[in-house]
Structures are given as structure tokens and as C-alpha cells.
């Protein structure tokens, strides 16, 4: 599809919805805002422009046209429209995502991420199953601090792991099953699991939780989910899936070679090249530990974003990263703009009354079903609809507000539990397709795994992940929240 068509289609959708008859219960401005919102979502999928630019254009257009009323329902003014347009930039979750990108930069700049991966491979890499667990553990060690699984898996783990298969003559066009295919699949399946295990393991996790407080009629203070709330909810299912990935892959997709005596030696040589652990690496490890301890034990005293900002300031003061590193990190600023505008757009759906209207409409169709069935159905719909999205962020922004509004309209349904159920599934659903999450195309395009196998395993692991996750989401989460 050429760029002109990718530009025209989102505009056409926005214009068509704009001029549709206004249903009872909605205002003309609500329909107009919906048209812009759907156009933004389609543009995020088709990518005629960078995603952050798409979000900014959508926000600016809706704000300039004064489509979003003030919080008390009064007509928008010049000041309130500007305030809404920029509202996402003062959202604490958006800044937590931004600072977490600085953590990733610290791991990369100091070399600590690479050292961790090499140390694990040196210890566990002599046999195929151990090598599988070493690559998985490398991702796990970085997951609490790096919210981009692309930066974590494709940027830190893959550059180390990719060197191993060629050592044994395992190449995409020559004996890929010897070890290459096995390792590549473990990498992508593991990062999907670790992305769900931690609140800060995937940027859309944070975006999803911020949307819970924007559900019409819900007090934001009553639905706060902390780092530790997330951790305890996800701990049992995360551990099960994390262990399952290397073991299951070893059983159903085993490498043809089982012993790799040269791998620990290679890792040891690479570690020697790195030299002794540097002072900067110790500092980075200390900063990560401080952040983790404050997220776990300091929730009564510090907001999670404040913790991240404190640690960022310490990293700058101690020169772990420089201010030049911060201002020149295009990915971080791009993500901040993207998420800030999407938070505002999702909040706009509530402000114009669309979510309340749609939630009541959907809840009417669900009347007569038990809460258990409704929550399971909403979770399944959210999870498997990811087949139609190439972006977890676009998926979250498009689908989650609607499902949350639907749940909020069902009497007796705990919206906090439903929100955690939906948000916690975001990482694991990335396994479904070769485009389901950021690192997927990296491993898909290595050529080690055949196209049909990648699709088949994506569906197989996706269904297994969902089945295990759903059990804990339905029975464990309510006890933890």
C-alpha cells in the first residue's frame, strides 16, 4: 500500500464518521471526536507518518475544533481546549515511561546489560536447555527496568545470542534447527512473558493502567494499581510461563545438537574483553536496585514516577548518563509525545460522553450473564483481537477504553480487577503473530524459523499463554487487589 493511500484512508474514515447520523444519547461533537479518534487509530496501524506525529495531529485537531467539553460538561473554551490538548504531557505515567527509557540507556551505555547476558551464558550455556534458560534469564534480569521489549530483547539480548548459532554451523540456510531456531524462538517467547511480569516491563502496561482512571464514573484514586500490586498478581502465572517456555520449546522444537562446549568458553572470552566490572556498571546496578526497592517498599512515600525521576537525577549527577544523553535520546522523546497524545485522546472519549454511552449499550447486551462470564469474555476479546493489530499501543488505545466502559456499566463488576486483567495480558499477547510486538520482526526476519512454523507456534503458545493466564486472572487477581 503506497503512502498516499495510507494517508487518505484515515482521513476518509474520520470524514465519514463525522457526517454519520448522531445516535440518541450522543452529541454531534462526540461523533466528530469519534471520527478523529478512529482516524488516528487507523493511521497508527497504517503508519503514513510517525506515530507520535499522528497522535499530535489528532490531539491538535480535536483541540482546535473545541470538540472536548470541560470536565463539568460545559462547552469548551480556548483555554480548556488547549489544556485538554496538552493534558497528556502532565500525566505521571507518560513520564514514568520516558524515564524508564533512560534506564535502558544506562544499561546500554555502561555495558551492564551485555555483561549480564554473557555471565548467564558462561554459567548455563554448555547444554541446550541451559542455554535456553540463560537467554531467558538475561531478558528477565533487564525486564523490571527496561519498558521497551524491543530495546531489551532485540537491543540487548539478541546482539549477544546471535553470535552463538554460527559457532556451530547453524545458519538460516544451513541446519537452522541445530540451535539457531531454538534460541530465536525462546528469545521472542520469553520477552512476551517478561513484558507482562512487571509493571515497568512494557510501556503499554503503564498506558493501560492510566486508562482505568479515565473510565466514566470511576474515581481515579480508587483504581490505583502499584508496582507491587502488579508484581503479586503476575508472580505465579509469570513464573509458570517463564519456566514453561524453554522446557516446552525443548520438547516440541528441540535443537538437533544438545551439547555446546564452546559456548561458555566464548562467553568467558567476551567477558575478558569487557574487563573487570567498571565503576559505572556498579553505579548503574545501584541505581536499578534503588529504583526497585523504592517501587517495592516506598509506595507510601513516593509515587512510582517520582521514584523514577529521583533515580534519573542521581544517574545524571553521578554521570552514569549525561544530560546530553537525555536530550539526544530521540526514542524516549518520541515515545513521550506519542503516549502523551494517546492518553489525551483516550481521555477525550470519556469527556465527550462516548464511552459512557457505548458502555451502557454494550452492558445491555450482556445483561443476564454472570460477572464471571462477562469478565472472561472481555478478556478473551481483548487478547485475541490483537491478531488485527501490529502495535500493542494502538491496540490498548483502541480497545481497552471500550471494554473498561462496558465493564463499568455492569453492576457488581470490579473495574480495578478487570483493568488489571486486561493490562496484564498485553505482553503475552505479543506472541500471537510475527508483527505482534516490537522484537517479533527481528526474530522473524533472521530466517531461522520458517514462516509457517512462526505462525503455528505463535497461535499454539498464544493459546497456552492465554489459558494459563486466564485461570490466574479470574481466581488469583481478585485476591491480590
From TrEMBL:
It is a multi-pass membrane protein. GO terms for cellular component: membrane. It holds the Pfam family Na_sulph_symp. It comes from the Bacteria. It comes from Candidatus Desulfovibrio kirbyi. Keywords: Membrane, Transmembrane, Transmembrane helix. The chain crosses the membrane at residues 7-23, 29-46, 82-107, 128-146, 182-209, 230-253, 282-299, 306-323, 335-354, 366-384, 390-410, 417-435, 455-477. It is found in: Membrane. This is Putative sodium:sulfate symporter.
